[in-house]
Fold this sequence. Notes:
By secondary structure, the chain is α+β, with helices and mostly antiparallel strands. Helix content is 29%, strand content 20%. The protein has one domain (15-110): 2-Layer Sandwich (Phenylalanyl-tRNA Synthetase, Chain B, domain 1). It has helices at 48-57, 90-111, and strands at residues 3-4, 16-20, 61-67, 77-84. Keywords: Cytoplasm, Ribonucleoprotein, RNA-binding, Signal recognition particle.
Amino acid sequence: MVFLREKEGLSRGSGRRIILWPAYFDSTLPRRLGRRVPRDMGVPSPKPEDVAEAARRAGYEAVVEESSYPRLWWRVRRRIVVLAPDDASKTDIIKAVATELRKIAAARRKRS
């Protein structure tokens, strides 16, 4: 598990920093509270570490940082900072990470 302060941890290579919140992938949340993928693409209550691992499996460099999601500001949560190529849209990154996150969740269910 990696917790870093602002602006540490990612290489200074080309690309831009994209912020991903676990709420984007949470199938238990409605869209008005921040879910950005269809319910069937999400997983219930994803952990930030799993989202970061999914981003790495999708081919992106990712770190976890302490922060609060603006729509759920009363919860102290963590965010995932992804270094993405300049030509990739945030929506494409979210979909790629959601696909990998589902694989991680399925593997975890099989082990249990």
